[in-house]
Amino acid sequence: MRISELYQSVQGEGEYLGTPSVFLRTTGCNLRCWFCDTPFTSWQPEGSDVPLPVLLEKLLSFDCEHVVITGGEPLLPVEIEPLTAALNRVGRFLTIETAGTIFRPVSCDLMSISPKLQNSTPPATRSSRWAARHEALRYQPNVIRELIRRYRYQFKFVIDQPGDVTQVEDYLTTLPEVDRSRVWLMPQAVSAIELTEKSAWLEALAAESGFRFTSRWQIAEFGNVRGR
Ligand code: SF4
Asked: In the predicted model, is pLDDT for residue 226 greater than 70?
């Protein structure tokens, strides 16, 4: 399995914010968000191939119940199926962080879905090929339906501008089966200053719209750095 990072930190977003967790970051993504905060897993993918038994041993060497598998897009590699099954067998609490464009029958305790809205599409001037591919792939309602049918879930939408909340509403109109109480809005930010500025209006907007607001602890604490 191609891995970019493995480290222990604290979950910075959503329902389990503040929970000590081990983060396994796969590399490779089928999308190319302009604001991607891990370009080393998407625009310029880096990482090493780690055999599954070695990866499992490394993961279990952390004395930490919560494991977060993130990316990149962690549902791309087929090895995630046996890996999550093995972690489940030994009682780890597993969160998978996905953009919700690919389905795999994994084992997990929380499917954390961060769908990518129109506000994520990169400009054609950056890459016309990726702009078209991203736009064609980012919305996969049948995958979302399958994920929320099978797993306990949360949605986290990245909001850059106040008008983006309208895109969230439009998105949810097409998926009425999504429980709005499990929908979180979080600011697009790569620095603590940007996070503070956007949180000021987004927290109020989320409350008005009946969504939950989540800050991003790791950005507030460290900025956009690896291994945090
Ligand atoms: S889906 Fe996630 S990892 Fe992929 S490009 Fe977008 S932000 Fe980056």
From this structure: no
